[in-house]
């Protein structure tokens, strides 16, 4: 979604970094899941459970660096998309949280980020359409 609005070097650097983080994340998920299955009551289980999040901590840094390489219009588009994603995600997750109090099944928190990402993509389409 960002490759066409940044210079080629910044886009390539971002994509390579995200690929590296993704591969490390996948490897650590595999290690974490198998370690927890083998020893579910180990005293270190919480550390192992969040181990895959270590490489993910780099993603905000990489994204901000990419945003800095955007021109003013593209930054505005990203800000509007992120603002929409933040507000829409808050509305959806809060609403569902209250509905859980009424008996709907609990939803795993792991779904919050994909919801935010989906709303970000919708916000990007809307902002890009607005500024075309």
Task: Look at the helices and sheets and give the structural class.
Answer: mainly alpha
Q: Roughly how many Å apart are the termini?
A: 15 Å
What do the pLDDT scores average to? 93
Tell the overall outline. Answer: flat
Largest sheet: none
Poorly predicted regions: none
Q: What is the strand content?
A: under 5%
Structure explained in plain terms:
By secondary structure, the chain is an all-alpha fold. It folds into 2 domains: 1-70; 71-132, no CATH class. 76% of the residues lie in helices and 0% in strands. Helix 1 (8-38) runs antiparallel to helix 4. It is flat and about 55 Å long. The protein starts with 7 loop residues before the first helix and ends with a helix. 8% of the residues are buried. The model has no long low-confidence stretch (mean pLDDT 93).
Summarize the structure.
The chain is mainly alpha-helical and 132 residues long. Helices cover 76% and strands 0% of the residues.
Which features would summarize this protein structure in a list?
single chain, 132 residues, mainly alpha, 2 domains, 76% helix, flat
Helix and strand arrangement:
Elements: H1 8-38, H2 45-50, H3 53-56, H4 59-68, H5 72-101, H6 112-130
Helix pairs in contact: 1-4, 5-6
């Amino acid at each position: 979604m960002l490759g066409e609005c940044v210079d080629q070097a910044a886009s390539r650097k971002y994509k390579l970094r995200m690929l590296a983080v993704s591969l490390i994340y996948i490897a650590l998920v595999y290690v974490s899941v198998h370690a927890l299955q083998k020893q579910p009551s180990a005293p270190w289980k919480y550390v192992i459970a969040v181990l895959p999040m270590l490489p993910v901590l780099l993603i905000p840094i990489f994204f901000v660096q990419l945003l800095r390489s955007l021109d003013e219009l593209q930054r505005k588009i990203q800000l509007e998309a992120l603002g929409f994603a933040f507000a829409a995600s808050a509305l959806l997750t809060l609403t569902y949280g209250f509905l859980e109090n009424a008996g709907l099944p609990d939803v795993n928190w792991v779904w919050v980020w994909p919801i935010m990402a989906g709303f970000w993509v919708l916000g990007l389409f809307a902002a890009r359409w607005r500024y075309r």
